Amino acid sequence: MKLIELQTILDREFKIDRTDENLIDFAVTDENKSFINPDFLSKKTALMTDNSENVDIVLTSVFITKEIVKKALQYRNVLILTHHQFDYFEDERGLQPIKPEYFEQLKKCGISIYAAHAPLDTHSIYGTSKSLAELCGIQAEKYFYDYFGEPTALIGIIPERSFDEYAEYVRNKLERPIITTEKHTESVRKIGVVAGGGDLPDILQQVYDYGCDTLLTGTIEHRWNVPFIQEGNKQFHELNHKLKLNLIGGTHFGTERPAMIKLAAYFDRLKIPCKYIEDTVLLDAV
């Protein structure tokens, strides 16, 4: 398929013309700007780099990391559909701009990048929280928390079971060596689900107000060395000291990964080969 045709299909699927999210800030730098598609600089989302006329295969990923680039370079005429327009580390570095050398390597091999952040988070079928809930056996009852015009989080239920048993079930489903937990009640029944960085006090309060006993999210322990991020995480935990919700954290990467795996079914319907590429460093991070 022609890249321009696939771009049009994805722009329509993710309603790019209806989002005002800005993916340029912090991601586009003086060092990497020369590699960025001018259309991306204008729209501030969607097709980040335009490096091939045709697309023979789509690769999906959560971030554009060293391991993702290395694996992608095995292919030619590729579109990487990524959730984040960043490199990423599960430590104090957190989100980082994609290195110019990564862009250069991808360009030489005809590998383009399409970034869908908020439009994927809020997608009615492939949304990150929706995909996480489905993987973890949660039946969605209500969507909430407006994110660029659409809800990105959900409230759901499971058959009542012990917290310890359910937390281990989630860990296995996410294929993580460990997860972060905070236990306040023995059982789990009603769960708020927020994939990615859900350690926000207002999200926690809403989950409590909806009558949940548990919050399933990505980030419980925030390691990014960013003062306002650390302050927000501190307020999140101070609030939960009062609310006493059970917390289950599967990491930012680990809880957004299910959506990128699930997207393969979308491209199957388009009859375009698609493969999720794994970042084992992030998957196994402790």
UniProtKB/TrEMBL annotation:
This is NGG1p interacting factor 3 protein, NIF3. SUPFAM superfamilies: NIF3 (NGG1p interacting factor 3)-like (SSF102705). It comes from Treponema brennaborense (strain DSM 12168 / CIP 105900 / DD5/3). Belongs to the GTP cyclohydrolase I type 2/NIF3 family. Keywords: Metal-binding. Pfam families: DUF34_NIF3. PANTHER family: GTP CYCLOHYDROLASE 1 TYPE 2 HOMOLOG, NGG1 INTERACTING FACTOR 3. One of its GO terms (molecular function) is metal ion binding. A divalent metal cation binds at residues 83-84, 121, 252, 256. One of its GO terms (cellular component) is cytoplasm.
